[in-house]
Amino acid sequence: MTVRNFSLIPSLSDALFSDRFNRMDRLFSQLTGDTPVAATPAYDIRRVDKDRYALAVSVPGWKGSELSIETVGGQLTISGKREEQKETESAENGWLHRGISRADFRLSYTVPEHVKVTGAKLQDGILAVDLYQEIPESEKPRRIPITHGQQAIESQQAIEHQSA
């Protein structure tokens, strides 16, 4: 399994060296038996409103039964494991080229505290995961009133008067 750090802002050097990197990655993957980095599915993260987010993962050709979503200790993990396929099936169906990734994958995201997965839907090769951030009232920011001038003096006198 390969761990991949996702860059939010691609730099110019990424574009210049991406082909060389992909070739080296495939070479090392063949030697080690790991899945190439390019085999991990593409994804989008979008803020829907103040408290809701949407994660979309591109999983063309995957069935719902082959995908799994877990949350454990602040980690959201999405994984795909292909069901066993008969070796003769692909040869009999006349495939000339199979470019759609068939490799098992595992994506892991760190989610902020109080974020919960509220649902997931697989449609048209996109796994849509709904996230909701619910901050408890005790942790929400609150305003503390500030007294001005005479009010502060009156409150001090009342405290002094009570202690005498």
From TrEMBL:
The reply on keyword Transmembrane helix is no
Keywords (A to Z) from UniProt: Stress response
Q: Which Gene3D superfamilies match?
A: 2.60.40.790
What superkingdom heads the lineage? Bacteria
Do you know which PANTHER family this protein is assigned to?
A: PTHR47062, SMALL HEAT SHOCK PROTEIN IBPA
The entry assigns this protein to a family as follows: Belongs to the small heat shock protein (HSP20) family.
* Name under which the protein is recorded: Hsp20 family protein
Origin species: Erwinia aeris
